[in-house]
Amino acid sequence: MGASHVSGLSIEQTTKRDHLLEILARCGRVAVAFSAGVDSTVVAKAAALACGDRALAVTARSASLASGELEEAETLAREIGITHRVIETEEFADERYRRNAGDRCYYCKSELYTHLEGLAGPLGVDVIVNGANLDDLGDHRPGMVAAREHSVRSPLIEAKLNKEDVRALAKDWALPIWDKPAMPCLSSRIAYGVEVTPERVANIDAAEQFLRQRLGIRELRVRLEQNDLARIEVTPADIARLAEEPVRLALVSAFTRLGFRAVTLDLKGFQSGGFNALLSSDALLTSFQP
Q1: pTM of the complete model beyond 0.85
Q2: Which domain does 238 fall in, by range?
């Protein structure tokens, strides 16, 4: 950040930014679990600023990664100026992951962090960090349990940055994804209890790409319910548009070709983490048995 830069951050956000950089500077050589989402991109940028060539960004490639996300990660890493590694993860080989209970994310993150630990020694990495922010503590996040078990740190949480702070910092640092919609893994689109398979996530990916590329819809989810039923969530402004002819017919035709038995449009509109709201506290307690 040059002397001519005029920050758009509040005083509180500036303090949090400086704390974030201090935390990372004290970590030594850092490996960032880098998904190309806003949170992990901010952590990668902060690590590059605080640690220089001691910072490394690592992206996991698997069937659950949406189309275009790996390419975006590679582009962002170049723009940030951080060394980038791509690893292959095999969460679909784990029956506990495929069964898709409320603890699915735990097994995915355990797989990721195990691979990152394997890299740490050969690369001389001192600390592995993720992009979890303060608001994530209020959601169902079994992956945070895996992070603790593998001693993965969350510098955004340590510096007390919430989602709003993270986006403000991304914008202030001129990161091109500062307003990017959240893009959780494709497996999160599948209703709990419905088996997660590479074929199902591929169909969901293709359906979402149709909505983005053919119809220009930016914020959306295609959720897979029981019996191969697709439930589309878009913002209220886009709901009427999808129900109009000939858009409706084109949408149904495309989804049918992808193997969905039925296609529905959720009148509630887009909801991040929609399936988590359906998990009762009892279900969470009984399903999560690492």
Answers
A1: yes
A2: 186-271
